[in-house]
Amino acid sequence: MVQDDILKVLVTEEEIEQRCVELAEQIEADYQKEGTVPVVVGLLKGSVPFMAELIKRFKFPCEIDFMKVSSYDGTESIGDVRIDLDMQISAKERPILLVEDIVDTGRTLVEVKKMFKNKGATDVKIVSLLDKPDRREFEIEADYVGFTVPNEFVVGYGLDYNQKYRNLPFIGVLKPEIYE
Ligand code: 5GP
Ligand code: MG
Ligand code: MG
Prior knowledge:
Layout (H helix, E strand, L loop, with lengths): L5 E6 L1 H22 L4 E6 L3 H8 L7 E11 L2 E10 L9 E9 L3 H12 L4 E9 L12 E5 L5 E2 L15 E4 L6
Parallel strand pairs: 2-3, 2-5, 5-6, 6-7
Antiparallel strand pairs: 1-9, 3-4, 8-9
Helix pairs in contact: 1-2
């Protein structure tokens, strides 16, 4: 069982679900005020469970798309962001709501936000399930954050270690022997 590899749980499934209700209300209020129809863009693959939990609470009109960028291999950052899969809907003259699993160094979101501005997006907001502010190297903050986590490598609810553990329904820390 993958559950057996977990040292401790940081955020439970119930806490995530409850937080998604709150985030969806905040986000909805902001887009209703602006009167715009955003393209909600999930960054694959980590954002998938969070995006699913969040968007089913939205009662305002929006469009959904995905893109895949990569900047990480294992537990260490390996350099600039690369686009592996681009979105299908045009971002030109559209407000964008980026959905991310975690803001760590901030490199990914700085680059992706810049890219959306270059594509002619009118506005780029970010919602991230997790924020790890102790690790920040690039100046960026998500507009909406689910939970702030300590400086530890976390898995679950979309977040992987070598592509595993994304299916865990909570956020946790792996036992040290898993990395050995
Ligand atoms: P950045 O450093 O660019 O902010 O983060 C890039 C990506 O690294 C995140 O979207 C996430 O996929 C991955 N990442 C950062 N911190 C963690 C972590 O603690 N656990 C896992 N599983 N992935 C992380
Ligand atoms: Mg990610
Ligand atoms: Mg990863």
